[in-house]
Amino acid sequence: MFKNFFYTAHRNIVRNKLQSAIQVSSLTIGITAVILIGLYAKQEWSYDQFHEKLDRIYRLEFSDNVGLTSAAGSHIINNIPEVEDMVRLISWDGKDYQYLWKYYPDADSTGGEKIHAVEDIYWCDSSIFNVFSFKFIQGDPKNALRDPNSLILTESTARNIFGDEDPVGRVIGEYYITGIIEDVENSHLEINYLASISHRDTLNGQARGHSGYLNNWGNRVFVTYLLLPEYSDPDYIESRINHYFASMQEDFGSEITETRNYSLRPLEEVYFTNGMRSEDNYCRHGNKKLLNILISTAAFLLLLAVINYVNLTTARASLRAREVGIRKVVGSSKIRLIQQFLTEAILVSLFSFLLALTLVQLLIPQFNKLMDTELHMLLNSGLLPWVLYFISAITLGVISGFYPAFIMVRFKTIESLYGKQGTAKGALVFRRMLLTFQFVVSIILIIGITVVVKQLKFMKSADLGFNKELIVNFKITGIAKTRDRAKRQLMKQKLHQYPGIRGVAFSKNIFGSDDSNTNWLLELNGMKTPCNLLFTDPDFLDVMGVELLEGRNFSYDRVPDLYTNNDQYVRILLNETAIKETGIEDPIGYTETSENGRKLEIIGVVKDFNFKSQHEKIEPCILAWGGYVGDAFINIAAENIPGSLRVIRKEFERVLPDTPFQYSFLDETYDRQYHRDEQTATIIIIYAFIGFLIACLGLFGLASFMAARKTKEIGIRKAIGASERSVFLLLSSELIKWVLLSVLIACPAAWIIMNKWLQNYAYRTQIGPGVMILAVFVVISITFLTVAWHSVKTARTNPVDSLRYE
Question: What is the distance between the alpha carbons of residues 114 and 137, in angstroms, rounded to a whole number?
Answer without folding.
Answer: 25
